[in-house]
Design brief:
- The structure holds two protein chains of two kinds.
- Chain A is mostly helical.
- In chain A, 76% of the residues lie in helices and 0% in strands.
- In chain A, helix 3 crosses helix 4 and helix 3 runs parallel beside helix 7.
- Chain A is globular and about 60 Å long.
- In chain B, strands 1-2 form a two-stranded antiparallel sheet.
- In chain B, strand 1 and strand 2 form a beta hairpin.
- The mean pLDDT of chain B is 86.
- Chain B contains eight helices and two strands.
- In chain B, helix 3 packs across helix 4 and helix 3 packs antiparallel against helix 7.
- Classes of the chains: A mainly alpha, B mainly alpha.
- Chains A and B meet through helix 2, helix 4, helix 7 and helix 9 of A and helix 2, helix 4 and helix 8 of B.
Amino acid sequence: MGDLFVLAISCIFINNILLAQFLGNCPFLGTSKKMETAIGMAMAVIFVLVMAGLITWIVDIYLLKALNVEYLRTVSFILVIASLVQFVEMFLKKSIPGLYAGLGIFLPLITTNCAVMGVCLINIKEDYTFLQTAVSSFAYAVGFGLALILFAGVRERIDIARVPKCLQDTSIGLVTAGIIALTFMSFKGMV
Amino acid sequence: MAQSLVKEFTKGLWAEIPPFRLVLGLCPVLAVTKSVENGIGMGIATTFVLIFSNLLISLLRNIIPSKVRIACYVVIIATFVTIVELLMQAYTYELFLKLGIFIPLIVVNCIVLGRAEAFASKNGPIFSIADGLGIGLGFTLSLAALGSVRELLGNGTLTIWDGLPVFHMGANFLPFKFMVEAPGAFVGLGLMLCIMNLIGKK
């Protein structure tokens, strides 16, 4: 139990998916202009990432490794993720319309979010067990949400500040992200 | 014909150079530019995937039904990524280890899918190859540029190939470690984007 807790903490803070591993940066910069979209994206990622992590783990162990065709990993993972996203979208639309309305437009974007694919590959690379995969997928997704929401908060303030013309928009966004990454670096000694 | 072919090729090198003009595919840009060597390796791998996926998608553009096109593109791209992965594992094993999961992640690099959707699905095969080559080389140049800034300031060296530095700042140079750590990637890219905005005011 203690091990799993340490794993969760290190996935959320120390190896933060956005700021330390550089995965999922396109939605990080794209959806962080408003707090609302940031929260929607964070929720959608948490939802899909946990499911994708578990399903790709099962596919890898019981299909790819069992049949000795590991070289098909890239192709099969991207297919699993793309169809999972599509399936989740249809399921939510039909049975939980409230949640669908909230996550709606963010779901299709997740297919090309490299954080999802990245975490699935990390889980396999680190040889995690099923339980560890569940914990790490959830923790990485929470770390993604945390960084995204923090960043959106800062970015809303920057909007009303006077930024030099050449630095506007993405440029100042990246510099801000750098400073947030610097604060996340101080978690390094924790575990 | 020849003139517009050159135009398709050169637009990737300046007018639409990724990731500065097209802000797409930031993850590999930030992650692998600790050294010039990694940047160039990643750039070449991406260029390879871009050229061949553009070519194949352009050849099949009239056969693929538009409703399932994205899924088809993704499978085509994933196939070429797997080929690159296996080739790198066989011939450049050191680089393969350094780039790690970022090689399979070329699949979800928005630049590749973006070019497939925006260019290869509408143009002929020769133009698509020119476009893929141009955008790929532009991407490689950007990675090398950011990589050299980060490596020079953060490590005091420049390494083009095989771990042998071709340039050294000398013993008196104090490495600015911040640049090779995660925050340096964001700040470095942000400032380079700012410089690009200053030079090329539209």
